[in-house]
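<backbone_tokenisation>
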Amino acid sequence: MTNKDIQELIAKRAAAELKPNSVVNLGIGIPTLVAKYVQPGSVYFHTENGMLGVEELTSEEDLDPSLVNAGKLPISEGIGASYFNSGESFAMIRGGHVNVAILGALQVDQEGYIANWAIPGKNIMGVGGAMDLLSGAGKVIVTTNHTSKNGESKIVEKCSYPITSLRKIDVIITELAVFKIEDGRLVLKELMPGVSLDEVREKTEASFEISEEILALR
């Protein structure tokens, strides 16, 4: 698969985690693709720079340069969309009014801690709203490639990069598998189509348990 195919696969699976009428915040990168796989009007997408009711821009004719998400990508507005300043937007997040946050990651460890904002010695964008989303969102889903560009596992025993929050994430979705944090344990819940358990074991540094659903298929 190309990297684009991998990203689309992950985004499509993440969309299946969303319940109708949820308020959902999409992070930068793979998370922005999730909107393509959600029935219009079934959930309410939120962007921390101040909009609820975000929709994917499907036509260049509808492009409005003043309408962008937190990643500065052009977006469209759904029927009934609302606008507010960034202070009110973060009040929504911190007040627990965002049901789901979908974030990218540099690393996720076997306890559920995420590092997604800094690599020591490198100049990257910064934390953005990730700290607030991890603290305030009801459910946190991580969408990420299973390994880094140099082949190292991004699902690790312990994060070596600075963690983003003391709040643990709930779900990890990669092109190989779906993991969930259950009672403080990393549990393998699904294998992606065509992926073997041995391949996941080989490419995952973290220790994990195998769900009954997968064991039943063996």
